[in-house]
Specification:
With 304 residues, this protein is an alpha/beta fold. The chain has one domain: NADP-dependent oxidoreductase domain (TIM Barrel), CATH 3.20.20. The protein has helices spanning 33-45, 61-70, 100-114, 134-146, 158-165, 185-194, 219-231, 233-239, 253-262, 277-285, 293-301, and strands spanning 5-7, 14-16, 18-21, 50-52, 79-84, 86-88, 94-96, 119-125, 149-155, 172-176, 197-201, 267-272. An 8-stranded parallel beta barrel has the order 3-4-5-8-9-10-11-12, surrounded by 4 helices. Strands 1-2 form a two-stranded antiparallel ribbon.
Length: 304
């Protein structure tokens, strides 16, 4: 498919408007390795060229799986992004460490797991305000100079993201934005004026607007529902204002959500995470069916 591509900030990279997130349930035993790889290959066949993961995702297994998927693909035509800074302790718990030793270990291990000499994008993974200092930004600059990462950035929200933009180090950033959560809108607009590329995580608001969320037909759907109840209950409650998205004839609520995100100036790519092949195909193919402007305008007028 000829999925739309946009230039990612000043990087010059032509990135598909939909990316594929290699994390979450995708990297767990709930999805077989064979199936996980098939999702990546299917996404490529559909025209997706950006794959996002992280060194700590799925206890380190996500990068391994993505590396295996890349073996039979044309690496030079793909944009691979990973993240560093979230570390896995021996007991399996996550902790943050943005020291030079930790970050260099992250990138070297990531390259080995991914089976590549470089990543197109290395981002710091959700640092706290207390983590931000000149040294950590210098580490990113040096990794970029070394060629291990073509471009660098940060995946974060709120004040951390605002302060990170002030450094003039970021080529790209990833942040949360969707029909329910719009708190980072002004930062996205500022990044656009600075020429910093914008990637969006959670563009579908974890499907909290979807009327079918509670229709459980598989173990994966049950896992997803329990995850929403545990981590995104507030988002679900706020999304009740958007029930009309399920009633638009000829357009799925998921495509409305995705196209709303991509209608924001400066947004180059929305990263979706799915382990349902039908959902993957419908999300990509649905991009050709443009959501009416009046629907996007209506969403903009609703205060969540």
């Amino acid at each position: 498919m000829n999925i739309e591509k946009r230039t990612l900030g000043k990087t010059g990279l032509e990135i598909s408007v939909l990316g594929y997130g290699c994390g979450g349930v995708w990297g767990t035993p709930l999805v077989s390795e064979k199936d996980a790889i098939s999702f990546v290959h299917a996404a490529v066949d559909l025209g997706v060229n950006f794959f996002d993961t992280g060194s700590s995702y799925c206890k380190g297994n996500a990068e391994i799986r993505l590396g295996k998927a890349l073996k039979n693909l044309n690496r030079d035509k793909l944009i691979i992004g990973t993240k560093a800074g979230s570390q896995i302790a021996e007991n399996g718990k996550l902790y943050k460490d943005f020291s030079k030793t930790a970050i260099m270990k992250n990138i070297d291990q990531s390259l080995k797991k991914l089976g590549t000499d470089y990543v197109d994008l290395l981002q710091y993974h959700s640092p706290f305000l207390s983590d931000l200092n000149d040294e950590m930004w210098e580490i990113l600059v040096n990794i970029k100079k070394s060629g291990k990462a073509r471009f660098v950035g940060v995946s974060s929200d709120g004040e951390v993201l605002k302060r990170s933009l002030d450094t003039n180090v970021l080529d790209v950033f990833m942040t949360t934005f969707n029909v329910v959560n719009r708190e980072n809108k002004e930062t996205i607009e500022r990044a656009h004026t600075l020429g910093v590329g914008v990637l969006i995580k959670s563009p579908m608001a974890h499907s909290t607007y979807n009327s079918e969320l509670f229709r459980i037909s598989s173990l994966r759907k049950l896992w997803y529902l329990l995850r929403v109840i545990k981590n995104y209950r507030t988002t679900y409650i706020r999304a009740r204002k958007l029930n009309f998205m399920n009633t638009i004839e000829g357009v799925s609520p998921h495509n409305i959500a995705l196209q709303y995100v991509l209608s924001q100036p400066g947004v180059s790519c929305a990263v979706m995470g799915t382990t349902n092949m039908n959902h993957l195909k419908s999300n990509v193919q649905g991009m050709a069916n443009k959501v009416p402007t009046e629907i996007i305008n209506k969403l903009n007028t609703i205060t969540i």
